[in-house]
Amino acid sequence: MKTFKIGGVHPNDSKISKDCAIEDFPVLERAYLSMAQHLGAPAEPIVQKGDKVKVGQLIAKPSGFVSANIHSSVSGTVAAVEPYADLAGNPVMHVIIDVEGDEWEESIDRTPDVVREIKLSKEEIIKKIQECGIVGLGGASFPTHIKLTPPPGKVAEYLLINGAECEPFLTSDYRLMLEQPEQVLIGAKIMMKALDVTKCRFGVEENKPEAIAKLKTFAAQYPEIEIVPLKKKYPQGGEKQLIEALTGRRVPSMGLPIDAGAVVQNCGTALAVYEAVQKNKPLFEGIVTVTGNCSEQQRNFRLRAGTPIINLLDAIGRIPADAAKIISGGPMMGKAVSNLLAATVKSSSAILMLTEEETKRKPESNCIRCGKCIDACPMGLEPYLLVRYARANMFDELETEKIYDCIECGCCLFSCPAYIPLLDHIRAAKAEVMKIMRSRPKK
Amino acid sequence: MGTIIIPTVVSLSVLGLVLAIVLYLVAQKFKVEEDPRIDDVEAVMPGANCGGCGFAGCRAFAENCVKAGSLDGFFCPVGGNAVMQKVADTLGLQVEEKEPMVAVVRCHGTCDNRETTNIYDGCTSCKVKANLYSGDTGCKYGCLGCGDCVQACKFGAISMNPKTGLPEVDENKCTACGACVKACPKGVIELRNKGKKSMRVFVKCINKDKGAVARKACKVACIGCGKCKTVCPFDAITVENNVAYIDFTKCRLCRKCAEACPTKAIWDVNFPVRVPKAEPKPAAAPAPAAAPAPAPEVKPVETPKNE
Amino acid sequence: MRKLIVSPSPHIHSVENTQRIMRDVIIALCPSLLVSIYFFGFSAIKLALVGVAACVGVEYVIQKYILKTKVTINDYTAALTGLLLALNLPPSSPGWMILIGSIVAIGVAKMTFGGLGQNIFNPALVGRVFLLVSFPVLMTDWSVPESWFRDGVDAATGATPLALLKEGLANGLTVDQIMAANPDISYVHMLFTKIGGSVGEVSALALILGFVYLLVRRVIKPTIPLSILGTIFVVSGIFWLVNPEQFTDPIFNILTGGVLLGAIFMATDYVTSPMNTTGQIIFGVGIGLLTVLIRYFGAYPEGVSFAILIMNMAVPLLNKYCKPARFGKEVKNGK
Known about the structure:
CATH topology of the largest domain in chain A: Ubiquitin-like (UB roll)
Structural class of chain A: alpha/beta
Low-confidence stretches of chain C: 151-157
Strand order of the largest sheet of chain A: 1-14-13-17-15-16
Strand content of chain A: 15-25%
Mean pLDDT of chain A: 92
Number of strands of chain C: 1
CATH class of the largest domain in chain A: Alpha Beta
Largest sheet of chain A: 6 strands, mixed
Low-confidence stretches of chain A: none
Distance between the termini of chain A: 43 Å
Largest sheet of chain C: none
Largest interface: A-C, 70 and 43 residues
Structural class of chain C: mainly alpha
Oligomer: heterotrimer
CATH architecture of the largest domain in chain A: Roll
Order of helices and strands of chain C: EHHHHHHHHHHHHHHH
Distance between the termini of chain C: 48 Å
Radius of gyration of chain A: 21 Å
Helix content of chain A: 25-40%
Mean pLDDT of chain C: 85
Number of domains of chain A: 3
Number of strands of chain A: 17
Shape of chain C: globular
């Protein structure tokens, strides 16, 4: 079975919510739509206080090249356009909408029929994806239309669909592949057309045999899409790791996936593309897993962006008394939530509750030079060394040690027996080194 | 015996001579021509290599001084005016006197004043914490308390007070090199005029939130009410983004603003004790930013605020 | 309102920690310890107890009263050093000797460098070599103390096979003649017992059992032990093929003189071994080569300890120059 070669760890996969079917989450009284739901420049709101909006209506426009449209996830009246604290407690511009009913834009096809025929041309598809504000749903929220437009001179050979879902606890992609496999495959077909590629590989980790079986039965109609089971190993869903696992190629250091002739898209993104292109539906909702060993209930919701986390947790009953940390995303790369009033975004994938015992860091002790961080690093870096340099602010050495290659997957910290906060230091030092590198005049 | 000693002495002498010649030739070959004045300037520098002057170290500073041919824009914060005068004498140049500066921590969000709203569990680094989120208190502007400034200080002038969770600057050790200012991701620390007999008035808060929000997060926050601005007779105070700032070049240390401040966010330090009119309660007055008094004749009283 | 914990990712940690790793190594040493208790009785227990207690005690005293830092004796590293030191001494060693060895191991070889993770040399080996140099007579006295379970060990002769060999060769005998004179030196005996030597070397099988346990628990990777054993096998094999009269066969070399104990437990010490696979292979090959050379051409009959200590010195260099395979080659011009 295929996988990537260097490093990786095997956390307990804890997919306790995998048998919970996707439910629609009821629309709430107020939606808080962040203007920073994607990587890059925040969008600029085009609605004002008092405006009436419908579900799917454009409410914000991109303010830069790397930026994306934002659509309303509810219908109602705009109550305010003002800064509101995000997950980390930092103020970000939000459009706050008081919900009235659930009136959708008429142009959106809400029927459950599967539309198989791809009518739009390559350019029209990319335009449609851009209009619908599709961003990568695998974590980084990079605007999809940019990824589907390779820079001049570079040619994509493969479209790779990421169904690895290597993060523990997360089951949103799994449910998606199980419940809407054909839509996902059509989404992949659409992106193949947009990219002009003939080869598509769809990687799914072996711990999801039902999803693999289901996808394989539907893939019979789409022979150019190959379903590839992958060995279970974190961070298989990392872009560079997935490309290696599926094609055997390695993205060069400082390079982009396109340098290895590949474009990687998450399976959730494939569904969003399908809905945008075939159903004319902008991206304003997604599948969110609500889970945790301490929680009595586990659920998979189809959730509108802009729902405050506290409402989501209230909906499944009280927050468990021993939930000490709440994470948006998976336990390896997700962000800890300091502000429960913060709202979800369109790329939210999970709300995870962990107990103090599961998550609290133990006191740091001396490095015993066991080299486990080196064995775990999927980029072949030496985390212990990077941290030593980082603590001494030796940025030149950090650059020669290729700190910029770090994908911040967390394998080093996960496996360190001395509980040294390796990634904390590396992340901060990496940002510093990148700043220094960017400030250098380009040759 | 002589047959052993003589050849030994001769061979060792020859060896020594040959090696000396080799050393001389190598030294000649790799000789680097340098302005001898650089060494002279470096000799009068403090040698701390702190980088506070903006150069990589004392030697780099000396090189640049010599190369520039003028001392405009060059200042060694560690050595201060005395060293700059020496540098000027060495190079035969003129130098302007600069007022001594000191690092000032502009936050008084102690554990009592600022309630924590969550538990930070990452590594002890302000840089990491600031990149992660707004902080573990309601105030997203104030000191994060992980001590990056303490780490950055090469003179041991900053220490964390375990009671308040805030850094404190030892004025006698502070050289105003600015390393802590650069290290603080929140911009809490500022280099300010040291002031006559170390007497200073400054706003010990940089919270830019609206008054009510700031006040809720911290008992001693500046709420941007502007009372200080009104009472200031020298036009030294500006209120921008809901926070007051005292321009130390204009401030004449009249202390009216400190009296007017409703949240006691304005501090006047190292002033002599006033005639006992309304003595500040010692309990209400936490340790000041600078505990030891620099001026021996004036009893160092740190006056958090009297009504 | 509830106070949530906030930290950067990742939010979970593997079950591994320093304590658990050290405990696993101690467990892996247990078979050897039990076998030696069976053969040497109280003296083995005494050595182990004194070694462990002395090492833990010395570390405690240094951390608490001299360095005034946090006491970290509960991470089992000092206990492990004590146990390893005990297993590396002759069974008849007096208690005071291991006490001195422990003080040197922890006090000199570990704490002076800055404690756990900072030392260059393997502390237990420094302790052992210190004793070997200081008390050469006691350290080569292989007489077997009285056992509880048997009336002395019938076969173990009081000298290690390697010492017998060295002496015999020096007297102009050939390997075959020496072997014939000492019929108890056989592979079966080496695997199970009956071989004169230090406490931990009695049974090769018990050591291999510990090795398997360490591999199963993923405490160590097989790189270092296998490269040491492989090198010894190949190098001594070459000598043997060239002149079987003067040199012993490779399997004999692997099974005697603490090679297994050294390769499995001493050379794999995290702190004093290289961190990258390439470095580990070079490290192992170096130890194997030096061991054989010391055995054949050195003054001491066996040389694993010295070989490991010498290669310990090369570790910082190996860490510096042996880098793991990076992911992807650099793109020029940083595009």
